């Protein structure tokens, strides 16, 4: 008779299967890399259609979704390495293949501590506020709605329902 206690218990790191396209060595990480489940359960700080940005733990911000491409992580790494422009450090890139040709990408990057301007504004004097106001027209402005965006069929249906 076979005893259940003699059967090995499988150890599963992640229920969701994904490929690790890039990962820095463990000794250069501020904390262990998050799993896809941890990322999906993390608080979302920004969402635009099929793209999300989430804070994961104390060290990571993750941009993920169907419209996120691994090339974005490569571009960030290039800019960080070859320019003086400060961009977050990319620690890892995961990708899930859901259907033929459909991928969900996760870019795990450095969380940069800081306060948002709306929290700091009241502490500025008039000169500082004017300096910021004069800089504002130079900042790139995102379009009020995406010009081109990938989205799932359910998101497309929701968008069409709003328009029609």
From TrEMBL:
Q: Check the record and name the SUPFAM superfamilies matching this protein.
A: Protein kinase-like (PK-like)
- What is the recorded name of this protein? Uncharacterized protein
Q: What does the organism's lineage look like at the top?
A: Eukaryota, Fungi, Dikarya, Ascomycota, Pezizomycotina
């Amino acid at each position: 008779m076979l005893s259940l206690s003699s059967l090995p218990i499988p150890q599963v790191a992640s229920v969701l299967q994904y490929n690790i396209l890039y990962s820095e060595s463990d000794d250069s990480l501020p904390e262990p890399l998050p799993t896809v489940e941890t990322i999906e359960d993390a608080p979302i700080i920004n969402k635009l259609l099929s793209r999300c940005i989430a804070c994961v733990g104390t060290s990571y911000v993750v941009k993920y979704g169907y419209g996120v491409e691994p090339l974005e992580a490569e571009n960030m790494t290039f800019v960080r390495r070859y320019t003086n422009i400060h961009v977050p450090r990319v620690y890892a890139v995961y990708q899930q293949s859901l259907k033929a040709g459909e991928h969900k990408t996760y870019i795990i990057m450095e969380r940069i501590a800081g306060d948002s301007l709306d929290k700091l504004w009241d502490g500025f004097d008039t000169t500082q506020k004017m300096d910021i106001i004069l800089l504002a027209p130079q900042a790139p402005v995102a379009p009020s709605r995406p010009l081109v965006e990938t989205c799932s069929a359910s998101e497309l249906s929701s968008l069409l329902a709003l328009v029609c």
